[in-house]
Amino acid sequence: AEILKEKSLLFVNLSEMLRLMALTAVVTHIMPYLGTMKISRMSAGLMAAGIPLLSIIGRLGFGWLGDLFEKKHIMAIAYSLMAFGLFALCYVKVNAMIYIFLFLFSNGFGGISVLRGAILREYYGRYNFGKLLGIMMGFGACGGIIGPTTAGWVFDRMGSYYSVWLAFSGLIGLAVILIMGMDSKE
């Protein structure tokens, strides 16, 4: 019960919710979005497949960095990559931007995937790990429901995903601030 009152736990859980909002919105809407940009379905499918494939680099790289440096700093860098990747997604009409999106977003999302459990273990120990991971996944599930639904609703109202990607980029920027606001572990 005492752990649940800690600011750091709230911050990491809110960050996970924001991450899943953006991630599930992108995964759900990437092909329709690229279709609105007149990108072929085959190319859009390859781009969609590239997200989890390229995330492997982030999982390995950020996992390794998390063992060398303070995890909250490495996690903030991974969130920053996601935010910049989402910002690049706003401008896929510029040829290189889709590749910049794929590299930044995928590596950031992959890095956070491994660091979220590592940071819970580091901050709260082994004994509470399962309970706290379950709470974190519950926050993430809420984000996973909100993100794609919001993206679809905004597209239906405005006919564009631009404001969605921009807003999610800003929300992931907020996650960077939340992660950096966590108490440091000695």
Can you tell me about this structure?
This protein has helices spanning 7-36, 41-68, 71-89, 97-124, 129-158, 162-180. With 186 residues, the chain is an all-alpha fold. α1 (7-36) packs antiparallel against α2 (41-68) and α3 (71-89) packs antiparallel against α4 (97-124).
List keywords for this structure.
186 residues, mainly alpha
**Rg over CA atoms:** 16 Å
Unreliable stretches covering 5 or more consecutive residues? none
Q: State the oligomer.
A: single chain
**Helix content, binned percent:** over 70%
Distance between the termini: 22 Å
Strand content: under 5%
Number of H- or I-type helical stretches: 6
* Mean pLDDT rating: 93
Q: So what's the overall shape?
A: globular
Broad structural category: mainly alpha
Number of strands: 0
Largest sheet: none
> What is the ordering of alpha helices and beta strands?
HHHHHH
Short description:
With 186 residues, the protein is mainly α. It is built from six helices and no strands.
